[in-house]
Specification:
Length: 124
């Protein structure tokens, strides 16, 4: 089975940057990032497929957040630039072990494993 370890969260001022990491132990087909703010539903952020260079981004983060990967380390990174207070949330990485169609990766139920979450707080 797959185990996911997240890191990189923290407190930054608006306009600052953070890079989140998600290291996977086990075989995965794709990995994604979701976030959940207090009182709000879980929200898709970004996702990437290991076998290609296809990536997906939520409209709210497109142009500011970037997915990258290290195949040797089986680690996906989420580089977050130009952070805004509304980006404040607990960020979760997730792994999909099948071969789901790319657009389905925008849906949390498509994933088989989830990380423990890491807090990102952006101050004004």
């Amino acid at each position: 089975q797959v185990q996911l370890v997240e890191s990189g969260g923290g407190l930054v001022q608006a306009g600052g940057s953070l890079r989140l990491s998600c290291a996977a132990s086990g075989r995965t087909y794709a990995m994604g990032w979701f976030r959940q703010a207090p009182g709000k539903e879980r929200e898709f952020v970004a996702a990437g497929i290991w076998s290609g260079r296809t990536t997906y981004y939520a409209d709210s983060v497109k142009g500011r957040f970037t997915i990258s990967r290290d195949n040797a380390k089986k680690t996906m990174y989420l580089q977050m630039n130009s952070l805004k207070p509304e980006d404040t949330a607990v960020y979760y990485c997730a792994a999909e072990t099948g071969t789901k169609i790319g657009p389905s990766l925008l849906i949390g139920s498509s994933y088989d494993y989830w990380g423990q979450g890491t807090q990102v707080t952006v101050s004004s």
